[in-house]
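Intended use. Records like the one below are meant for learning the mapping from a protein sequence to its folded structure. Do not use them to infer anything beyond what is encoded.
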Amino acid sequence: MNTKGTIILAAGGTGGHFFPAEALGIELTCRGFDVHFLTDERARHFLDSFPDDHVHVISSATIMGKNPFRFMRALFYLIYGVCQSHRLIRRLKPRLVIGFGGYPTLPPLYAATIMHIPTFIHEQNAVMGRANRFLAARVDAIAGGFLESKDKFADKIIITGNPLRASVIEASHVPYSEAKGDEPFLLLVFGGSQGATFFSEIVPQALALMDKSVRSRLIITQQARDSNIVKLTQSYKSLGIKAEIQPFFSNMAELIARAHYIIARAGASTVAEIAAIGRPALLVPYPHALDHDQMQNALTLAFSGGVKVVRQEELTPVGLATIIHGAISDPALLATMAIEAHAAGRIGATQDLADMAQALAAGKNANNFKKEIHT
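Structure written out for the chain above:
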């Protein structure tokens, strides 16, 4: 039986938005809150940690481009989503509404603000996304994963880090193990929902340039689009490389912990999880992100020394082959990078964000809570 009231979490339908929201939702549920999710159709089948009657699909659309018809259609969906959210909020009577970015966040957060319900948004990236920036002036507080204090809304920002799933926190306790001599070298490659195709093309090209004796040590685990899996599998087989290739891995935290080296994009969740678990990596920011946030995310972790960052347009097969060969040849360097990456992680981010949510749900002022968050 609920004793602390209802909290609504709103998040877009991609992993970068709903994984942090899910992590917070689980923690708040453990603390006695009745947690409801508002999202779009994409996330419904991923949120298996919550009962169906606590997951609500809200109308939304992405506003982009200059086509007036598409703009009006998107605006209609968003307005309809506000009406849906208003009805749902009236029924659930939440003490707090929290947004995690993405356009599905707009209708419920906007509705909550006009209904004078306490709100805050969580921005995972170093650069605030469009939906969150639209809401920033209206909400009571802004929790940040990598946001900088010089942001326009700095007076509202509370740096909590990015919430981590329980599997990531568990994996963060696994020490890095060096691959020495002729021992197998575990390479993990993943690119998220948008950036996997580039890796499917360049990684086999780079490995083809390396000596057979080096390639024979490699065991690759790689995320790839369905359309690329057959070709990628054949490429690795022809190179004599053992590989597991899937469009999605449900045990990503375990795979990160097991890896000796990682090649990945630089989404906020990816950067946070690599840092929390503490693994050396090459980050190649996705160049077509709407707000160019991935480069800033990557540079934030690169400052610690735990990862190397290369722009996609500057990464060639020869350059990547050099990087991978250097990583395999210097296990001591990778061990040092792992330590530096781990030192930059924020293992307590989920707890800090839950503390913030609990304080605001109890009617406390966000500014009074700001000083309680520690690195």
